[in-house]
Give the backbone structure.
Amino acid sequence: MEKTRLGITISLLGGALYFVGLLGIIPLVILAGYVLIFEENAWLNKVAVKAVAVVIFFAVLSGAVGLIGDVSSFIVNFVNLFTTGFTLATLNRIVSLLQTAISFARVSLLILMGLSAMKMGDKSFGPVDRLISRHM
């Protein structure tokens, strides 16, 4: 089995990239930066880019859904300047439900991709895979 400069297997570091993505973007970018700068394995480099891209994809998606909630809050506050009792409670519940679904999907996908990477496999994720193949 091929090992990294850290002395661990490439598959373990590949899985770690996805698992570190569960902790946040900063630790992931640091680990991915290490991989891209110091490791020469093409599969591992692709995993590093893909892990960052998956986390960014879900962050953008979550931000877009959060923007809907912000717009609804703005509308409620603006209308309540002139009248009282106006709410968009149903829309806020939908936004909350979508945020929960996005978080569940992100965590599930990162765990599945991490487990797959530990076996030198690759779980496909359409939008991210297309982006990576176009630019890498």
Observations:
- The chain has a mean pLDDT of 93.
- The radius of gyration is 19 Å.
